[in-house]
Write a structure and sequence with these properties.
2 copies of one chain form a homodimer. Chain A is of the alpha+beta class and 330 residues long. Chain A has 10 helices and 13 strands.
Chain lengths: 330, 330
């Protein structure tokens, strides 16, 4: 048996079983995006992401500046999804022999700029030769124990929200992969190459206890919703027509897909926050959206587990999503 | 300009300049093996190491069990060198599509066993497709602020010590690289494939304030001594004949090298501890060696900076080491 057969989530499930911890200081361990351990009154949050040339990025699309920015963004987004405050990061980098120093210099310059922007410090790392560029970032954040937002707190009756717009990143990737295009819409490309982690939104939701469960959309809206549903032992209903789609998405997606909502539901890497919240908080969530100037859209509701996971089409008919998203190992 | 030209240490120096931190909580940042940040009364130590197939290991020599063990050992050794207590680790792994699950399962089984042995917990990680196997571990430890042993505390007049024996790992690698050998000495091979981090020794030296500066030998005795000398602004003298060499080393090194001491001085990956200590602690260090049953050998002394770094040969003549060790980027 190999990876193609069991897929990424199959592997993670196995790893969870291979290695179990009984340490009471470990609040969340393997299987979550972020590990959480007690450190006195505070908790420490740690997340790590690996990016490999040819798998996660393609040198012909991305420049070193955007590569640095994105490497950090995907980790920041994990901390955002817990409502944490990012503090420190370490970076390991595998570098091909002939890569010009100017590339590495620009890469680090981008890290420095992002580090300042998010008030975090690069504190260590490792360097190695490698055939392909490999980047691994380990990001450490902190939070108050009572404020952390997990994936397992969604209750039937809660609303389901998403920040920003969805599908842009996946569409941006499709456009990057299309050869000989004369014009490429900047907004969609940027969403793929330079996603902006929702750090401030995550912290505001956490501090004000506004979300019952939260995740960042890295694998795709459906698959990440499914993570919340499984962890919370609930079902959900999402209205396709409620999905926040950008103007560019509406225009360009028609060239790639008959179904307007397909990439929005199944495409990954939007790094938007997906969260559930009790109905009585609708006004407070609207105010937060206004004050942070970040769109927050109600797209569905949490149901009892037995109701399952349904998508409501434009014509009112429901369907159960089958193929949820992208399997990284296929 | 590319990496071949500036080498690994040239790159690290540049990175240090590209990214500087002014955060007062960061006690040690980039450039050290271990990053140290204040966390209340305690300090948190974080280290990360990347291992890449074809660069750090070769699939024909190593089995998944030893690979897991070594991946963790190189990080544990970094924490040992600061006198810290390892606590948690995260692992990112890049996996070729066709790698059998049994390989990954054995790899994690080995991690689990080592985690129990060193009382640490695997708390998270990331998985990805990759052409070659890539392993990145991020290890988090803790310590008391007053106990940490840095590289910069060596004083003229201090003794210089090393634990265990040196050169075995480099010789083991040479033997692994030799084709068609009928017999391969197990001890030397094991030192290369399954080094044992000196966690207990590091902690004992730290808790009892017995070492003025310390490092683990990963790049080679000369180069790692040089790190201590540069950070401490001192010189040193090492007697070749004092170097602790194993019986197997003495026997097998003659097949590879005319100079008995060459691999002991220049070979890397012994993961022994190299430390300086005031002369008046000689008896206490001997007792510690006896009680922990770990050989500790006095190999030299720290000199004022102007005396430089000298090696004393068997015939009493001194020389200044030029080529210190191995440049990973060449």
């Amino acid at each position: 048996m190999n990876l193609e057969k069991i897929g990424e989530f199959g592997l993670i499930k196995r790893i969870r079983n291979w290695i179990k911890t009984s340490n009471p200081d470990v609040i969340r361990g393997i299987g979550d995006d972020v590990a959480i351990v007690e450190m006195g009154r505070k908790v420490m949050m740690i997340t790590t992401d690996i990016l490999i040339e040819g798998i996660h990025f393609n040198m012909s699309w991305i420049d070193p500046y955007r590569l640095g920015k994105k490497s950090l963004a995907v980790n920041l987004s994990d901390i955002a999804a817990m409502g944490g405050i990012p503090k420190y990061f370490l970076i390991s980098i595998g570098i091909p022999k002939r890569l010009p120093i100017s590339f590495i210099s620009l890469f680090y310059r981008s890290l420095r700029r992002e580090a300042r922007r998010f008030k975090i410090d690069l504190i260590g790392g490792d360097t190695s030769l490698s055939q392909k560029i490999v980047i691994n970032i380990c990001l450490i954040g902190e939070g108050d124990k009572e404020d952390i937002i997990f994936r397992d707190g969604a209750k039937p009756g809660d609303d389901l929200y998403v920040s920003g717009t969805v599908g842009d990143s996946a569409l941006g990737l499709r456009i990057l992969q299309t050869k000989n295009l004369k014009y490429r819409p900047k907004k969609l490309i940027n969403k793929q190459l330079s996603p902006i982690p929702r750090i401030q939104l995550g912290q505001s939701l956490a501090r004000n206890h506004l979300a019952s469960a939260m995740i960042d959309i890295s694998d795709g809206l459906l698959i990440d919703t499914k993570h919340i549903l499984e962890e919370s032992q609930v079902g959900a209903r999402i209205w396709e027509t409620y999905l926040p789609l950008s103007r560019q998405y509406r225009k360009w997606s028609t060239f790639y897909d008959d179904n307007l909502y397909d990439m929005a539901l199944r495409g990954g890497e939007d790094y938007e926050l997906l969260f559930s919240a009790p109905r009585n908080l609708r006004d407070r969530i609207s105010s937060l959206s206004l004050s942070l100037k970040i769109p927050i859209t109600r797209i569905g509701e949490i149901l009892p587990k037995k109701e399952g996971f349904r998508i409501i089409r434009k014509d009112g008919r429901e369907y159960l999503p089958n193929a949820l998203g992208y399997n990284h190992f296929k």
